[in-house]
Amino acid sequence: MTGDILYRLRGPAAGPGPGAHRSREIGGIGVFRDQVPFWRHPDARRIDLRATLRDPFEGVVVRRFEERRALEVWVLLDVSASMRFRGEGDAWALATELCIALARSATRIGDAFGLIGCGAGPDLMLPASRRRGTADAVADRLAAIRPRGTSADGLLTAAAFLAGRRKLVMVVSDFRLPEALIGAVFERLQGHDVVPVAVEDGALEEGLPAFGLIELEDLEGGGRRRVLMRPSLRTRWLAREAERREAFRRLALRHGRPPYRLADRFDGDDFSRHLLGTAA
Asked: Nearest CA to 128 among 108, 113, 138, 116?
């Protein structure tokens, strides 16, 4: 079982109840924030006697605390056929493992976790929930899904569902999608903290042979074909993949965080480092 995924929202949380994340809410409990005159925060229970006695202007000083709030963690998951790809890893198994780990980690600290599976439309909807057992529900629902179809346009529709308070939103896909669609999804999620998770596979990159016959299958209905791989073709292939990845990275950065590359195996510690390292 993967350990807990650690994450932090970029900016203050604004969840509906107390939780584990910094917020702009000022209250009587939480992490000490500052001392202010009584007239700015008239709470007699928080009078700081020492600071009050030291005040040369004989004012009354009050301590303020920064409240911790919960938040909602959502995954918008591409369930189109290309997510069935298997090479050095299994794309669907990786995405499933990530969703289960996130659901378990979020609910353990009091956050809510929700999931929308997206093909041509929103094909799967699990409302955000804090209840124990959410991770099991995610596992059961994803185990019953076989990615299919040629479209992930449902990502755009699903993004519109996530209005309201600021949320942490993971968009999980191979992102072999039209750039216009990806950009529109990110635009629609503006206001949330968006983490793109790109599901990739080493067999399509460093694992490509320098020479030999390889069989390619278009999982979205384009059939199979054999290709004679040779050094010049491999070089062009890798260059094109690098260009595609760099274009996607630039697009993601314009809307917040850089993408996380999920390839071949899921490493929860590495994912946590990415989430914490890009939250600043």
From this structure: 113
Amino acid, res. 156: L
Burial class (CB within 10 angstroms; exposed 0-12, middle 13-18, buried 19+) of 172: buried
Helix 134-143 and helix 91-108: axis angle, to 10°?
160
* Torsion-angle region of 110 (φ positive above 0: left; ψ -120 to 50: alpha; else: beta): left
Q: At what angle do helices 179-188 and 231-254 cross, to 10 degrees?
A: 20
Taking the chain, what is the end-to-end CA distance rounded to the nearest angstrom? 29
- Do 4 and 108 form a contact (C-beta atoms < 8 A)? yes
Tens place of pLDDT for every residue, the chain, 280 residues? 667 899 999 988 877 777 788 877 776 667 777 888 888 888 888 888 888 888 888 888 888 887 888 899 999 999 999 999 888 899 999 999 999 999 999 999 999 999 999 998 888 999 999 998 999 999 999 999 999 888 889 999 999 899 888 999 999 999 989 999 999 999 999 999 999 999 998 887 777 777 877 777 776 666 777 777 888 888 888 899 899 999 999 999 999 899 999 999 999 999 999 999 998 7
Q: What are the angstrom distances between the C-alpha of 26 and each of 35, 64, 72? A: 12, 7, 20
Residue pair 37/59 in contact (Cβ under 8 Å)? The answer is yes
Q: Tell me the C-alpha distance between 101 and 113, whole Å.
A: 11
- Rg (alpha carbons) of the chain, rounded to whole number: 23
Across the beta sheet with 122-129, what order do the strands follow? 122-129, 112-118, 72-78, 168-173, 193-200, 260-263
Cα separation, 159 vs 152, whole angstroms = 12
Give this prediction's pTM: 0.84
Count other Cβ atoms within 10 Å, centred on residue 261.
Answer: 15
